[in-house]
Queue: 2 jobs
Job 1
Amino acid sequence: MESLHYLLMKSHSVMQRKIYSEAQKIGLTSGQPKILDYLYEHEGSDQKTIAGYCEIEPATLGSILLRMEQKGLIERRQKNGNRRSWFVYLTENGKEICEKMHDIFSQADEQAIEGISSGEIEEIKNLLTKICHNLDGKD
């Protein structure tokens, strides 16, 4: 059997290729789907929080958000007079694209778990969560 690191990297690469090939069909580029997915549940987040959750460098996030803003997917606003931080919100167009991405994510998930029991799926999620915590060094 292959090593754990290889299987994790390969699974990630295969899933990412599948998702991004579909995301490109609706006009999204790398990084944008996970940002949209995050904002769908956490609208009005600041850029630092988005970068941390999405595992994207803040400088890279800034350029991705700029392209998303130019496409009319998001808007950045100041909140409560805070001039130092920008908070990110989905536009109506962004919400529509988000719905399409949710369909893409669901289809990829369904293909990935084909033939796996619900108990095994929960165990996989638990183990992957533990692996992320171990590698991140966070409690």
Job 2
Amino acid sequence: MLDAKLLGIEELPDAWLASVEFSGMIREDASAGPSPFREVWNMSKPVSGGGWLVAGVQALQ
């Protein structure tokens, strides 16, 4: 299970910055039960093309 929520986006002179909160349930091992998780991913993208790059991940628990 995965939920995503855009927390904010900011335009700088040469790049876009976005923060997205991901939350849900994750199973890290096939023999284990799912566990809840919550993280904020900060991403950047040049204004003049290119794709989004992960600039940082912060676990919230």
